[in-house]
Amino acid sequence: MAALYLQTSFIIICIICRVVSSAATPLPLRFKRNGKFKILQVADMHYADGKSTKCLDVLPSQYPSCSDLNTTAFVNRMIEAEKPDLVVFTGDNIFGLDTTNAAASIKAAFGAAVAAKLPWAAVLGNHDQESATLNREGVMKHIVSMDYTLSKLNPKTNKKIDGFGNYNLEVMGVAGSALKGKSVLNLYFVDSGDYSTDPNISGYGWIKPSQQAWFKETSAKLRKRYTSTPPAQSEPAPGLVYFHIPLPEVNELDSSNITGIKKEAISCPLHNSGFMKTMVKTGDIKAAFTGHDHLNDFCGKVKGIELCYSGGFGYHAYGKAGWSRRSRVVVASLEKDRNGGWKGVKSLTTWKRLDDKHLSKIDVQTLWAKRTDE
Known about the structure:
This protein is an alpha/beta fold.
């Protein structure tokens, strides 16, 4: 009887664990019935210890009452206003050097998304791992363990991949549509590193060959599946890439070919590892989104791919007094067939919102649109 009781208790506990786990795990990402999928990007929160952590670069009148809690309030405002389907945090989520408990800071930084029960994903920046308690791998492992996250430590593969937080997510077609079982939008998340480990090269890190090999293989599999398995599509599903440190090719952009503002120099790696060429070669990437340079919030096209900053979000991050913290939104919209059914992605649009009185919406633009002759 004792053995039977223990076995029954164990089964009950397992069932309870599965229920709790499933309640905290988002369903597969999918376009809504209105044919839209919305992504909110949060860049450079620089979260530390909450209320006791003061703001940087704000107006004198704001300083006495301003803290990390203002960052949390901004995330909440954006979630309420935009009602995103996915929140993406693009690095420097915490400012490790100023945290007294990195795990607690991570919990607080992503707390708004968790409380809203929204699917969310994160990559690391160059400051996340600078605490005394969690190294880079430890930070990402902690993120992966949190509720409602779709973040992954790394792909399941026998090949060694540099960094922590290289993974992809698939966004399925509208429920009940012909493409309900296909990913019509592919999202890639890449660890762009922190600082150079090459003694001959100073400055920031870069996306390594092992990561690019995984990226190319993953893109190839997704492209083949989308264009060959029923219902086969004429061209690959569009892809978006998220990482922290901008690519050297951003330097090809200036005020004549950007939408948004450039207020500081591009802090890219001194070594060009060729990730831009890799994205171009796959043929499915339409835009890449970064953070890192808080006073840049522009998008500009290089070699057919839009390279976009989000602009600084966090209040414990450097900024400019009087220049509002901001966030980027991207919306993918599906096209309809002759019978009114949903097909693949028709366009990608974006805008930014400012953390001002009116949560001002600025710089609405089309990043990509499917050719009308197809």
